Hints:
The complex is a heterodimer of chains A (about 130) and B (about 220).
Chain A: E1 2-5, E2 15-20, H1 26-34, E3 39-43, H2 51-57, E4 62-67, E5 79-84, H3 92-96, E6 103-108, E7 111-116
Chain B: E1 2-7, H1 12-16, H2 18-21, E2 26-31, H3 38-51, E3 54-57, E4 71-75, H4 82-91, E5 97-99, E6 107-108, H5 112-122, H6 127-131, H7 135-138, E7 139-140, E8 142-143, E9 150-156, E10 162-168, H8 169-183, H9 191-200, E11 206-209, E12 212-215
Parallel strand pairs in B: 1-2, 1-4, 2-3, 4-5
Antiparallel strand pairs in B: 5-8, 6-7, 9-10, 10-11, 11-12
Amino acid sequence: MKRGTECEGRLRGVPTVFCNADVVPTDLLAALRKHPVSHVYISDRENTLGYHGIGALLQGYMVTLDVTEVRAEQRPSNVSLMLRIDGDRPSWESVSRLTKEDQVKFERDREVIVLPMTAAIFTQPEEFEGDIEI
Amino acid sequence: MKALIIAPHVDDETIGCWSVLTSNNDVTVLYLNNELTQERVAEARSAGFHLGFDPVFGSDEAAVALRLYERVYVPSRRDWHADHKRANMQWRQHATHFYSVDMERGTLLPNAADKRKALDLLYPSQASLWNNNDKYWLFEDIQEQDYDVYRKLAWTLPFGGFIEVTVLEKHATWVNTHWRASHEFRKELTKHDINYLLANVTGKVTINLNGVIYEAGNGM
């Protein structure tokens, strides 16, 4: 676990506790009692944490989950996802479940590019209709 | 409660003092003479109408009757923006609270979604700020002081000598009750005792044990 300042994406500059999913809940809660921050970044690449549960556990904090898949599960307002693009993950189903509060992350050798979903431009299949063959 | 918010820029009052604006207070916002274009003035008047505060434009104490206000919210000295630091220097003598838009000590707002809607509606000229960083609408950072307050606690030791512990004020009660009580100072203080203290408090910690100084990070 580390304490620092978020330097990725839409919460840059916010004091943050960074941890892995396996320290939730006991060690994480103990750390938060000692280190007052407003944002918790949890690396959960195995996608083990339930959104509702982590949101309730960390009520009063903004939580970013670093994941490789997105479940069809309602998320509380204090939980947003950082979907990591890595090899053949994530699935299309995961990408389609992202909301405007989420972000997409590309990383190599600690160089990171984060794209907020608010910048996404969506196209539906029917919009491809109407072209004329020439 | 009558409250005055000192705003270096139009939108600082909403970003920094959302809970003040939405808590049935009688609020006046004094906008200082920074970046006051026609567009920004119009946004300020619109915000005042929609959020129920009185917008006033001016650069010094002559613009408002300070004695009328029970609470005065001033930008924190911690904010990085030069206009905020300047406002802090000019107005801090009147402040009851300090707000920061940098959110280093921010707390998550329960009605953050409403704050976001208000910002989008009232300040379209500034939307790129919170479109690219959620902290401006998710959090609020209002403190009663904008600097760290330290307490020095001191005891004589039963086995001879003395100890002084200097910690952030928020830890003083824990040190004075829990740490002191748990060790009771019946035996000589050990490295474990000191490290237990250092593990449970944050910020700069100084221990003076019989004239020998220990600081956090320089253990026994």
